[in-house]
Amino acid sequence: MHILQVSPYYRPAYAFGGVVRSVEGMATALVTRGHQVTVLTTDALDQTRRYGGAQDEILDGVRVSRRPNILPWLRGRWNLSTPRGLRRTAESIMPSVDVVHAHEFRTLENLLVAPVARRLGKPIVLSPHGTLNLTTGRGRFKSAWDRLLSPSVALQIDHVIALTETELAEAKSLWSSFGARRRPTGFSVIPNGVALSEFSPLPAAARFRERYRMGDSPTVLFMGRLQARKGADVLIKAFLAADVADARLLIVGPDEGMLPQLRTLAGDDPRIIFTGYLAGEARLEALAAGAVFALPATGEGQSIAVLEALAAGMPVVISPGCNMDEVAAAGAGFVVEVSVEALAGKLRQLLTDGGLGRQMGARARKLAEASYSWGKIAVRLEEVYAGLLEQ
After folding, report:
1. Among 173, 188, 225, 308, which is most buried by a count of CB atoms within 10 Å?
2. 293 near 221, Cβ under 8 Å?
3. Could you tell me the mean pLDDT of each successive run of 10 residues in the chain, 391 residues long?
């Protein structure tokens, strides 16, 4: 099959979070399984910068076609693309495409590409990536978009792939408000994946620990964008309340407005370390340095960072908002309410009981291998694509 992946951003625009890693993971896995994959995207690198490489290139077998944003400041203010020539590029690519897989829902890319695909009879799959819920940010903007623009796109979508059962229910409810299609939209649940080989073995952590003056202290790792719904503020309070004298809290991620508040909460405590955004080897070293991964988030779709922690063999302490109850069922960590007291208790337990941490870490890796390898996810994506082509 020739699969066209349509996304507002792509590798190396990892500052935009898990969507970029998810699209990269599935595209690479599908190429490995013998498919042709083209990614149609923009030149966004982060909220303010553009990608400086070639507009058209091949990365790990994936053909990537980037189109320049006319107004890049809109990306930083509204997280909105303004790609020049994207529809024209879609017109040129589409005749050879078998299936279109769009990522995120309320995007200009979807408004431009979906009509081209529909006119040429190409089935369209959508992965919302946890963006449907109005409580995950930009609620008024999303509501206005849904009133004015969403129905025209939604009624062209043949199949919606949710990450979790929670997102599946959200998608079905939202789609029911858009009206009926001649052929009903299909729905399924396929989780995010992770490239297991990237996390086994991890690089040595000694150099990283020396750089950030961590010594051999047991470390809680937070990895994510510094925004309110990720819960880093609650985590800092919980870490201080856990009161494990020799422990460290490592806050890794790009600032999206919360850093001054988080630094105020941390005060002058040298045990709380802010690294900013880490990429490549440094990101893997941070995972190697961690003893516990914590993400007390609300409104997550399904966190790639949590999956990477599982693949790295790290016990996790997460919230119900992460939509991964299977972590507790597998004994790979704890799912606790977002409160200082609940988080502090589980952090203290794992930081002071190395044996428990190692047991849960081993189960975490097994859970990642059983449920979240990109190889297995790609097979399930193939089944969705093939089913649409048979209709």
Report:
1. 308
2. yes
3. 97 91 97 98 92 95 96 85 96 98 96 97 96 75 88 95 94 91 92 93 94 95 93 97 96 94 96 94 96 92 93 97 93 96 97 95 97 96 96 81
Let me know whether 330 and 382 are in one domain: no
Cα of first residue to Cα of last residue in the chain, in angstroms, is 16
**Residue whose C-alpha is closest to residue 286's, from 220, 240, 341, 336:** 220
Gap between the Cα atoms of 292 and 345, Å rounded? 13
373, β-bridge pairs = 194
To which residue do tokens 């941390």 refer? 266
Can you read off the two tokens belonging to residue 38? 């083209």
CA distances from 183 to 97, 112, 123, 151, 175 (A): 21, 22, 12, 15, 13
Residues 272 and 338 in one domain: yes
C-alpha span between 200 and 373 (Å, rounded): 13
pTM: 0.90
Question: For residues 181 and 163, what is the distance between their CA atoms, to the nearest angstrom?
Answer: 23
Buried b (16+ CB within 10 A) or exposed e, 359-374: ebbebbbebbeebbbb
Max CA pair span of the chain: 64
Strands (E), 30-113: 36-42, 56-59, 62-67, 99-103
Q: How far is CA 276 from CA 250, 251, 260, 283, 312, in A?
A: 10, 8, 12, 11, 21
Q: Are 295 and 306 within 8 A, CB to CB?
A: yes
The residue range of the domain holding 225 is: 196-371
Check whether residue 275 and residue 363 sit in a common domain.
yes
Co-location of 367 and 339 in the same domain: yes
Half-sphere exposure for 319 (CA within 13 Å, toward CB): 21
The crossing angle, in degrees rounded to 10, of helices 340-352 and 232-242 is 60
